[in-house]
């Protein structure tokens, strides 16, 4: 039986095993998918033990190990390179291929909302790992302009310098006031602490979608704020989670699982 796993710490609440089992059921594929929560110092050992098993095909990696997973990969896709983080590993011909599918998941879920990214002005709030993973897929989706802002502006500037295309710009307070974004994405971890990032210079009046990468049973503070300030609609990151998992599943199995029934089922929990 093909073996898969997700590595992270804490890992107890991860939805990844449930999501991947649902994908596998769509194709009647028998798989095992376990949660592995190594101690801080034991990630590399645990990963190597997992892949020593001849049946081990691939794994997902979540916080805090995504940067260290990148160090373990023999090859990287473009999104992983720019993100400096790997969330999917695939063992092929004894080599570990590293991918970052978070941004692919984000783009797919924005499309799930009926929103196109091509020729849109997108504002990305936050410049951590998730933001880094999103930048390359957003640019690939053909956005007209991608502005990045962050509590620590140097990190936003650094990303734009690395990307080095004229339509990816770091914006601080004065610039934000006149940006008029069509799509505003919260990639900060503020929602996890039931907080808002600083939004006072950001206008939601022309915003057709306010997207929070965090997810919870109830709308996040960011979603509620955005709609109150004029955003046409808002969404949380549950669909992104399922879509990034689907992209990983495709890498491992070459199959394209249906995501909608999985998202709907998780919403009912
Ligand atoms: P990181 O720790 O790498 O980055 C955190 C970011 O949030 C930084 O830009 C940080 O700013 C900013 N931040 C944190 N607290 C605040 C605050 N109170 N006000 C303003 N900015 C703040 O985290 P990740 O990038 O890995 O994750 C970010 C979010 O994305 C999390 O909510 C995570 O759950 C979500 N996520 C969702 C996924 C999905 O599939 N739905 C996948 C991956 C992530 P600074 O640089 O100044 O510290």
UniProtKB/TrEMBL annotation:
<feature type="domain" description="Shikimate dehydrogenase substrate binding N-terminal">
    <location>
        <begin position="6"/>
        <end position="89"/>
    </location>
</feature>
<protein>
    <recommendedName>
        <fullName>Shikimate dehydrogenase (NADP(+))</fullName>
        <ecNumber>1.1.1.25</ecNumber>
    </recommendedName>
</protein>
<dbReference type="GO" id="GO:0009423">
    <property type="term" value="P:chorismate biosynthetic process"/>
</dbReference>
<comment type="similarity">
    <text>Belongs to the shikimate dehydrogenase family.</text>
</comment>
<dbReference type="GO" id="GO:0050661">
    <property type="term" value="F:NADP binding"/>
</dbReference>
<feature type="binding site">
    <location>
        <position position="102"/>
    </location>
    <ligand>
        <name>shikimate</name>
    </ligand>
</feature>
<feature type="active site" description="Proton acceptor">
    <location>
        <position position="66"/>
    </location>
</feature>
<dbReference type="InterPro" id="IPR041121">
    <property type="entry name" value="SDH_C"/>
</dbReference>
<feature type="binding site">
    <location>
        <position position="62"/>
    </location>
    <ligand>
        <name>shikimate</name>
    </ligand>
</feature>
<feature type="binding site">
    <location>
        <position position="237"/>
    </location>
    <ligand>
        <name>NADP(+)</name>
    </ligand>
</feature>
<feature type="binding site">
    <location>
        <begin position="126"/>
        <end position="130"/>
    </location>
    <ligand>
        <name>NADP(+)</name>
    </ligand>
</feature>
<comment type="function">
    <text>Involved in the biosynthesis of the chorismate, which leads to the biosynthesis of aromatic amino acids. Catalyzes the reversible NADPH linked reduction of 3-dehydroshikimate (DHSA) to yield shikimate (SA).</text>
</comment>
<dbReference type="Pfam" id="PF18317">
    <property type="entry name" value="SDH_C"/>
</dbReference>
<feature type="binding site">
    <location>
        <position position="244"/>
    </location>
    <ligand>
        <name>shikimate</name>
    </ligand>
</feature>
<keyword id="KW-0560">Oxidoreductase</keyword>
<dbReference type="Pfam" id="PF01488">
    <property type="entry name" value="Shikimate_DH"/>
</dbReference>
<dbReference type="GO" id="GO:0009073">
    <property type="term" value="P:aromatic amino acid family biosynthetic process"/>
</dbReference>
<feature type="binding site">
    <location>
        <position position="87"/>
    </location>
    <ligand>
        <name>shikimate</name>
    </ligand>
</feature>
<feature type="binding site">
    <location>
        <begin position="14"/>
        <end position="16"/>
    </location>
    <ligand>
        <name>shikimate</name>
    </ligand>
</feature>
<dbReference type="InterPro" id="IPR006151">
    <property type="entry name" value="Shikm_DH/Glu-tRNA_Rdtase"/>
</dbReference>
<feature type="binding site">
    <location>
        <position position="215"/>
    </location>
    <ligand>
        <name>shikimate</name>
    </ligand>
</feature>
<keyword id="KW-0057">Aromatic amino acid biosynthesis</keyword>
<feature type="binding site">
    <location>
        <position position="213"/>
    </location>
    <ligand>
        <name>NADP(+)</name>
    </ligand>
</feature>
<feature type="domain" description="SDH C-terminal">
    <location>
        <begin position="237"/>
        <end position="266"/>
    </location>
</feature>
<dbReference type="Pfam" id="PF08501">
    <property type="entry name" value="Shikimate_dh_N"/>
</dbReference>
<comment type="subunit">
    <text>Homodimer.</text>
</comment>
<dbReference type="InterPro" id="IPR011342">
    <property type="entry name" value="Shikimate_DH"/>
</dbReference>
<keyword id="KW-0028">Amino-acid biosynthesis</keyword>
<dbReference type="GO" id="GO:0005829">
    <property type="term" value="C:cytosol"/>
</dbReference>
<dbReference type="GO" id="GO:0019632">
    <property type="term" value="P:shikimate metabolic process"/>
</dbReference>
<dbReference type="InterPro" id="IPR036291">
    <property type="entry name" value="NAD(P)-bd_dom_sf"/>
</dbReference>
<feature type="binding site">
    <location>
        <begin position="150"/>
        <end position="155"/>
    </location>
    <ligand>
        <name>NADP(+)</name>
    </ligand>
</feature>
<dbReference type="InterPro" id="IPR046346">
    <property type="entry name" value="Aminoacid_DH-like_N_sf"/>
</dbReference>
<comment type="pathway">
    <text>Metabolic intermediate biosynthesis; chorismate biosynthesis; chorismate from D-erythrose 4-phosphate and phosphoenolpyruvate: step 4/7.</text>
</comment>
<feature type="domain" description="Quinate/shikimate 5-dehydrogenase/glutamyl-tRNA reductase">
    <location>
        <begin position="116"/>
        <end position="191"/>
    </location>
</feature>
<dbReference type="GO" id="GO:0008652">
    <property type="term" value="P:amino acid biosynthetic process"/>
</dbReference>
<keyword id="KW-0521">NADP</keyword>
<dbReference type="InterPro" id="IPR022893">
    <property type="entry name" value="Shikimate_DH_fam"/>
</dbReference>
<dbReference type="InterPro" id="IPR013708">
    <property type="entry name" value="Shikimate_DH-bd_N"/>
</dbReference>
<dbReference type="GO" id="GO:0004764">
    <property type="term" value="F:shikimate 3-dehydrogenase (NADP+) activity"/>
</dbReference>
């Amino acid at each position: 039986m093909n073996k898969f796993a997700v590595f992270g710490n804490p890992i107890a609440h991860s939805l990844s095993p449930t999501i991947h089992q649902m994908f596998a059921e769509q194709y009647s594929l028998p798989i095992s998918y376990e949660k592995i929560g190594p101690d801080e110092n034991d990630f590399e050992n645990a990963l190597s033990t997992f892949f020593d098993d001849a049946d081990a095909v691939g794994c997902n990696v979540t916080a805090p190990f995504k940067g260290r997973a990148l160090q373990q990969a023999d090859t990287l896709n473009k999104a992983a390179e720019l993100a400096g983080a790997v969330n999917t590993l695939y063992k092929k011909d004894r080599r570990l291929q590293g991918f970052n599918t978070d941004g692919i998941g984000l783009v797919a879920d924005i499309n799930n909302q009926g929103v196109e990214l091509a020729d849109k002005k997108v504002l990305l709030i936050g410049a951590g790992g998730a933001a880094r993973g999103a930048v390359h897929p957003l640019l690939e989706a053909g956005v007209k302009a991608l502005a990045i802002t962050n509590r620590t502006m140097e990190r936003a500037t650094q990303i734009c310098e690395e990307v080095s295309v004229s339509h990816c710009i770091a914006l601080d307070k004065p610039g934000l006031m006149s940006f008029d974004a069509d799509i505003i994405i919260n990639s900060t971890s503020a929602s996890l602490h039931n907080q808002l990032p600083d939004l006072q210079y950001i206008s939601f009046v022309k915003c057709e979608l306010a997207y929070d990468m965090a997810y919870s049973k109830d709308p996040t503070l960011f979603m509620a704020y955005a709609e109150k300030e004029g955003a046409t609609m808002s969404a949380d990151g549950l669909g992104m989670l399922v879509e990034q998992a689907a992209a990983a599943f495709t890498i491992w199995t070459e199959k394209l699982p249906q995501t909608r029934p999985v998202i709907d089922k998780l919403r009912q929990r």
